[in-house]
Structure formats: structure tokens, C-alpha cells
Write a structure and sequence with these properties.
The chain has 417 residues and is mainly β. The protein has four domains: 65 residues, no CATH class; 66 residues, no CATH class; 94 residues, no CATH class; 126 residues, Jelly Rolls (Sandwich). 0% of the residues lie in helices and 48% in strands. It contains no helices and 37 strands. It has a 17-stranded mixed beta sheet, with no helix packed on it. A hairpin with a 2-residue loop joins strand 15 and strand 16. The chain is rod-shaped, with a radius of gyration of 52 Å. The protein starts with 16 loop residues before the first strand and ends with a strand. 19% of the residues are buried.
Amino acid sequence: MAGYIGSRASVVSSGAERKKTFDITGTTTVLTGLSYTPTFVHLFHNGVRLVDGTDYTATNSTSITLTTAAENGDQVVVVSYATFQPSDTVSASAGGTFAGDVSVTGAFTSLGIDDNAAATAVTIDASGNVGIGTSSPSSQVDILGASSRLRLDGSSASFQILSRNTSDSTTNALTFDADTYTFNRAGSTEVVIDSSGNVGIGTASPSNLLSLYTAGAATKPLVVYAGSNEAGTKTSLKLGAYVTGVAGSEIRAETHHFGTLASTLEFLTGDTERMRIDSAGRVTTPYQPAFYAGGNSGWITTTSGGIVPLGAVGVNVGNGYNISSYAYTAPVSGLYYVSLHAYLNTAAQIVLKKNGSDYVSQGADTSFLIYTNGTSTGSTSGVIYLNAGDYIQMGARTNQSAYVYTGHSHFSGYLIG
């Protein structure tokens, strides 16, 4: 008896199942005019379900071949199914969990995404703020790591990179606002670029093109000025240990305005200028050690190898010349230029003495030696290396005496470097 036993499952939506009925006339082995997916098809011969691969062959998607032919009056029903994935949904009110990955091709809106450890991994709050690693984003984009944080706030044009401790208190921050960029460390501003383009290191309020401060607001190792600083002076660069009200050291390049334009490069220690290169390239060192001593009496006779008493000091920069011992003591090690000039009445030899000994045998016996046969003047000069603490004097050669007119004699020198 022809017919179809059973009904379509209610859980299968229309369009997912296709059914075609063949009322057989004559002997039929091949069913044609079909459209199916192999293995996704069922056959019912007079209500009896046939076995795929045993009772029929369905492999080409358009026809099915019966193993045993259907006869006149029989009915064969072909039921085929389209391929589909089962719906994996969660309750809108109660929520739920997806075990695998979820891909969204369209727009995505969520009030919270948790990671597998039940901690908030990604949050999009009701204001549209995105938090990664935090359920309460404080900025438009807030990324919270174990020891750092990144914030992006579109409303204030602010961008921050922060270090943080376990209590979530920010300790270090790199902040880019609309017109000011700052880096903070341990709650204090370390670097700032303000809206005028001034750069401050160690200060939150740079008043110059570049200001580099150490601890304390008055300490300025490096200051670069773009405009007027002191009255009548435009300073372009200061480099050194400069503390307001306290003696320090500086290298200072300045442009002075005193009726005419003149640029200088100055070197200071203890707030005192020690060397200057002016706009013409001339170098002045007003504190370079130097001395000049002459006599203030007439003829005197030195003892054998004695020192010529030159107590009238005209120059004594650094106070290295002693008017009691008539000796100059080197304040620092270096090369010194030394000059001796003597007016003698008898045959005598005047020499330079170093640390109490004659200094004449330095390549030639005439080095730092004045020799006369009678009344005449003589001079000698040259370069000598002195260690700090060495002292030099002008006197008669050892085992000799000299009759010297001190008023026409002098002894001088200065540090070359």
C-alpha cells in the first residue's frame, strides 16, 4: 500500500527539509529530478525507511538508484536536508557562557567581557569608554596592566602612559595634553614641554627655552634663554652648577646689549668670571696665576748663593709670591713662563733657583743664567714645569756672591697652562 508514515519534525524549520514523492507506474529503478546533499537524504518505500548504501545509492546529488526496483502502484518518498549549524544561544535575561571563540562580522555592543579567570578583560561601558584589564575605565580608552596603565581621553585631547603600584596609585606618568606634555615620577614633575615650547627638566614651570633643574627649585645646572634675562643682558646659554644665592660654576654664552651688540663666552666658578672669549675672539683670564717683583733699594751684596731681595711686588695674581722669602710657589702643576733681569756691578752669575737649588743645567748651561764681567745688565727667560708646591727664586749661583742694584732688577712669571 502506497503512503508515507510519520511527520516532519517540528524543530526543523521550513526550507531546511525537502520532500519529493514518486508514485510509481511500471517498474522503476532510478529516481531522477532530485537536488540533495549526499548522506543528507532518506528514502521511504511504501512507508518503510531504506538503508543508504544497501537499499539504494545516492551519490550524485540529482538521482537515486534503487537496489530493488519499485513496482507499479508503489510510492517512494525522498526526504533531503540542507546543511546547517545548530543554533548556540544564551538567554538574554539570565546570560550564559560560550565555550569556544565568538566571531562577529557586524557591529558589537557589550557592557562587559570577562576572561577565563572570571576577571574583567574588556569592558565597554554605557558611555562608550573601553577598558582593557579594568571594569571601570576612567578614560575613553583605559588599558590597565600589572604595573602600567595607558589612558586616551578624546574630550581633553590627553594621552597618558603611567606606572602604577599594587594599590592602583599612579607613580610615574607620561602625559600628552592638548598643548602641554609632562612626565611625572613619584608624584613630582620631571620633564615638561609647555604650550610655548619651553622645555623643563626637574621643573613643572619652565620660564626659558630650556631649563634643567636638580633637587630644589633654585638649582639650575643648565638654562637656555630665548629672551631677555638680566637688565641689559640677553643670556642664551648657561651650563654648570648654578644655585641662586650660592656660589657655583658656570659656562655662560651671552649676548650683551649696552648700546652695541657684543657676544661673549664666559667661564665662571664661585659666581666669578675666570675666563672670557669676546666677540673678537680675544681670550682674557684675569685670575691666571702671575707675579712681578722688583727691588726698592740700591746696591746690595748677596751672600754666597744667596737670594736677591726683591720685595716690591707689582703683580701677584693668586698671591703666590712671598715678599719675605722672595719666592714664588706654584699653586697648580703646569708649565710656567719665568723671566729674570739683573743689574750687576761685578763679575757674577745670577740664576733661577728651584726648591732652593740652582736651575741651570737644562740642556745648556746658560738656561736661566745671567753672567757679567763687570757693571752691566743681563736678562734670561724660558719655560719651566713646576709641580704644585714647587717654589722658585732669583739669586746668586751657589758658592758665589753678587753685587746687585735691586732698583734695576726684577723677577716675574706666569702660568701658561
